[in-house]
Amino acid sequence: MKNQLEIQFLAEYSTKFIKELIEYSPRLISAFIILFVGLYAIRLINRVCRRIMVQRDLDPTLSKFLADFLLWALRVLLFVTFISKLGIETSSFVAILGAAGLAVGLSLQGSLSNFAGGMLIILFKPFRVGDTIEAQNVIGTVTEIQIFVTKLITANNQTIFIPNGILSNGVIINYSIEGIRRADLLFSLSYDTNILAAKNIVVEVMNSNPKVLKNPEPLVVVKGLTDNAIQLSIRPWAKNEDFVVVASDILEQCKTAFDQAGIVIQPFVRENSN
Fold it and tell me: Do 180 and 240 touch, CB atoms closer than 8 A?
């Protein structure tokens, strides 16, 4: 008798399950059709958007970020549509997602600041990859602009990562935008020096250096008269790639020329504090 009841119960349960499955199957099939078609459409949209951004010569970092953001936004939208089609209530799911987003946002305030800074850098382009910049007391060549940090390589081959938050809110000196730079070199000469002769020597040195630009014209001026020296400021212009070599060469060649002319370079004298 007990076995008969169990068999009857199973038969009724199976019949009811099959009936519910048959009634639910159109919704299930349509939900999975939406899922698969949506995934294909998202992949296609993402590919087309990437191609358009490449054709419009958009910054590679910005292009990658926008494409990835669009990809995940469409995936979330598709997932919500999928579970809604299955008959699952989505309002509670959206509320949970919003609360989770708020909690994550509060815990990642620093990262969000860096993210916003990265977006500002990518959009307004105070510098690009390959530029030499000075920021946060660091000078280096930009090798990569990421969403959260900017990567620099210094002259002595050190890799520096600067958070985009403080980078976008601080002072940035870009040495590469204009293409040329002026060196500001300083010599302190003895008061016995004939200033005109010294200036002529410096002008000759700069004119004989092929890497010193003729336009803008290089200058040599008296910067100041201190208690113990005449300060001569030397200002040659050079291309960015020649700047370091030109500054070093001009210092060396001027020192050699001054020695040959008998011009005395005044050593630094520390004033007595008494």
Answer: yes
d(CA 33, CA 73): 20
- pTM comes to 0.60
What is the distance between the alpha carbons of residues 225 and 267, in angstroms, rounded to a whole number? 14
pLDDT in tens, 63-88: 777 787 788 788 888 887 887 777 76
Look at residues 165, 124, 159, 148 and name the one whose alpha carbon lies nearest to residue 65: 148
Look-up of token digits 């020192």: 255
Q: Which of 30, 27, 28, 26 is nearest to 38 (CA)?
A: 30
Which pLDDT does position 168 carry in this prediction?
A: 87
Per-residue pLDDT at 10: 63
Q: Identify the sign of the CA torsion 118, 121, 123, 129.
A: negative
- The whole-angstrom separation of Cα 73 and Cα 58 is 21
The per-residue pLDDT for 8 is 63
Distance CA(248)–CA(205), nearest Å, equals 12
DSSP lists the bridge partners of residue 145 as 150
Angle in degrees, 0-180, between the axes of helices 109-124 and 60-85, rounded to the nearest 10: 130
